[in-house]
Fold these 2 entries.
Entry 1:
Amino acid sequence: MDEGKESERSGVDGSQPALFVIGKGPDLKPYKTVRLAVSGDVSLCRLETAIVDTRDFQRLRRIKQLGATELVYPTALHTRFDHSLGTLSMASEMVRRIRENKHNSEEERQIPQEDEQLIRCLALLHDIGHVPYGHTIEDEFCIFPRHDKDEERTSRFLGKDSPIGRILVENLGNDLYERFMRIYKADKTHLEDLREDLYIHDLVNNTVCADLLDYLRRDCFFCNIVLDMEYRFLKYLYLSKDGPVKRVVVRLWKEGRPHPRRDVLSELIRLLDNRYLLGERVYFHHTKLIAGTMIAGAVQRAKTEGQLTKTELLDMGDESLLDKLEKSKSAAAKKLVSRIRSRNLWKRVHEHTRSTVEAEQNELRDIDVMQNIMRKWWESPQYRTEDEDNLASAVDLESGDVLFHCPDSEMAMKLAEMKVFWNGKLRPLAQCTDDPVVGPKLEVILKSHLSLWAIRVFANPSYPEKADAIVGGCQRLFTFLPDAKARFGRLFYKNMVGSLVRSLGLSNGLLHDEFEKREGAAIQTLLADTSAIRDRATITKIIKDAFTR
């Protein structure tokens, strides 16, 4: 065989032909076909086949797309692997729709082949950094950095010395590889820095994107939830300059017409509604939240006790993580995972809703209530775990028996930020509320989505007699109104002081008035720390000091 032609076709290890042949651009011809539920036949070119065949990509077969949702919907076993292939298929479909729309000008539908290959690679690899139960332990509980915010993890899976990185560099060339990495690592708060490449990010990761459009259909299918997922609006996609950047836009207005395309607008509203319904029925289903919170509680405690590291997670699947936790030296982690595996889950005992937070904010002007909640119980896993375990200890339970679920309050429905052409201007879909027909629907859906947020408290159901005390502790913890915090604190500690005094025999011989005096002194000392619940050892010491002076 001619040596030049052989080297031209060989890949990194000689097993795969190179993507580029000099002067011909990317080779996007189908090389292999994978048949998926939901997506049908997904075609892969030679480069994509080489990526899929790596150990790092195959690892995604062991990570479920919906984490613990299988405990609610037993067939929700689809994985990051099939979702990644489905996202590639959807991205390819979106590219085709933009190119084939004859209503678009040449500039509005022009996607060069090199850009198409970047879009396909970005779609295929957008979840490559995911760890087991990633959305739970990263996005919801902040135990580890998000997969797309972790430079070390990105380097591990896509750096030039990684197996996938070597394939990309060898086949794309250094310049195109660097361009791919800029898009992959783009900071969502500074997307405009991508300029002409922003539309590539839009297509895969941004608002109404290939990622979202695939997982909505896939999650519905595997949870057997029937929703109208017809994406007819894709016919109205086009590319447009928005200042110095290029964006993907939905054309909602016909030129020279005094009204929008109501059918397309209604489809986008239905898409928003479907996303809300999935949130309500799947992503925020109470059993799924409880199981996810128990997994996060186990991971946090194992990590704190030196039984689990981020590096270990990068080679794990869902089951190997649970095995690791169940066999660890962390008693709390072992108990939580054992209960998950027998589906003997914690129960919800308290819920602190967004409406409650908003009502408190109306009375307070000197602090931002939600910001304080986020800082204490979302952003800081150490602070959250300390409060959980102090409350558990106070009511004579063990570490992990009381757990908090406090998601990010910025539950923006990202697809509502999709750029649309509306009444002569580019604007986010969420700003189209001036339409008298769909505007009210849009506002109701977005408000309903926000109402899904709450701080939820779950507790070990083996001790139902502790539930009222746990609720009392939560009421003290989560309120920021000084009078309410003091009132809830007195109620919480009063019952506890009385019970402990009797069990320790400290009330023997005390007259009623003297007992009340010492009880009041103990409670006042316990209330001095307004930011937290005291643990049982501290409570006991304060009570002993008050009753043995």
Note: The longest strand covers residues 245-251.
Entry 2:
Amino acid sequence: MKCPKCQAENQSDSAFCEECGAPLEAACPGCGAGNRPTAKFCRKCRAPLSVTPAAAPTPRAHTPKHLADKILQSKSALEGERKQVTVLFADVKGSMELAEQLDPEEWSQIMNRFFQILSDGVERFEGFVDKFTGDGIMALFGAPIAHEDHAQRACYAALHLRDEIARYATELKREHGVGFSTRIGINSGEVIVGKIGDDLRMDYTAQGHTVGLAQRMEALAEPNSCYLSAATAALVRGYFSLDDLGEFRVKGVAAPLRIHRLAGVGASRTRFDISRARGLSRFVGRAADLRTLEDALQQTGAGNGQVVGVVAEAGTGKSRLCFEFLERCRARGMHVYEGRAVAHGRNIPFLPILELFRAYFGITLEDDDRSAREKIAGRMVLLDQSFAEALPLLFDFLGVSDPQRPAPPLDPDARQRQLIGVIRQVIHSVSEEQPTVTMVEDLHWLDAASGEFLEHMVDARAGSRNLLLLNFRPEYRADWMQKSWYRQIPLTPLGREAIAELLGDLLGNDPSIAGLAGPIHARTGGNPFFTEEVAQSLIESGHLEGARRAYRLVTPVERLEVPATVQAVLAARIDRLAEREKRLL
């Protein structure tokens, strides 16, 4: 008999799963007889049973059509492939006891709504519901289609689900008088994709460890909390606030495991933020690219507003180049405004644009709506008294509507035209006193609404004293790239000497590590992010001991392993290829 929760095989007469302890029989609320968990009616009295995995939706029913089509079209290429994934389990705490307190039909409706909340939350961050269990789900991030930030997406989804389920629990307490709590467990690791059925259910040859450990995290979690394994914690530390709970004995694992509780969102949003917190390495090999940016800034200062795009593959140093340039601009007292697209934000309209204009108006997370409106109004009226008429529209766009002065009802096109007109005026007004620099990062993750808005921002640069700095990967394309005031800086990988200088700054110059620079350059292709991650993995694995710029080799390095962070980046790139090219690669 297969367990509906963890899919482990059990003997036919088992009442509970030997792997995860989940019930393998559903107790009839009428006569108490045991039934198979897939049964819809009691085998003794024909009473309807509470919701079961068979009654729950299939993965395909809750997968967006474009993703379902891509999986089914590419499943022959995906099957048997190694994936770095994050697995999320979520279930209802004490579901059997709750089911006994309610009418079967009521319980079925409650669980169906619960499944919908879970599915929507996972889908919001482009996760994949792999299985519906009797009282929860198993979801995957990074498979069947790879994501380079799979662990972060799973944690964002967990925090979102925590809030949504808390609201649902309050509703159930009010309407049915029952307590409703959930547990979430998350683990990251490598799996091998098995057979993919037409309903999108999948098998994994590595489920005994990577998938099974995620289920163990869920079983250990306290009600209304999410527990992370050490593997996931290592991937998301800095992006999220974590509580270290210490080491736990986990069934099926010989050594104690360190476990963390997911507490909230952290201070970092990008890989570059993590690098800054860890301590930036020496900036090498980009002097010519900096000169190009300085030339664009000089032309902007003369009233010929410029748009510069920095384009390169993941990890080549786009963010670092832009950071160094913006720091120079700030040192000169120039105004700098930043916004960035994020991988999980493609379904959130205007995310980077809103960040950009909140930065312009000085709006922080501590500001309430009234404070935010005061900052917007003060800045706008200071620029031009005529902007006062546009304030209700701006308040509404930035999510701080004034109940006393709501925005006028407009159709979407008219609203967009007015907003664009205001933003054009703002761009020209802010740069009258001195040149300003605006940066939007990671355009390859831009949502469609922001992409349209960006096009008008590019047009508004003509004749202004505002430099628009953008960075993106090579797959990003836009019509505005044909503008005469747009120029592009393609970054190439670092050469052998630059990589040696970078490693010297990170590791030092002890004779024991003198032979590492060549193999690392060959292994990483001169990619600075890959280089730093390989160096960090050598430190974490114990091959290197010491401190920054003073490491020494203590155990031989027979083979340079590809870190999980780099594997995820490469896998996400590979999955965007056509099936034929992917299979060849």
Note: The longest strand covers residues 182-196.
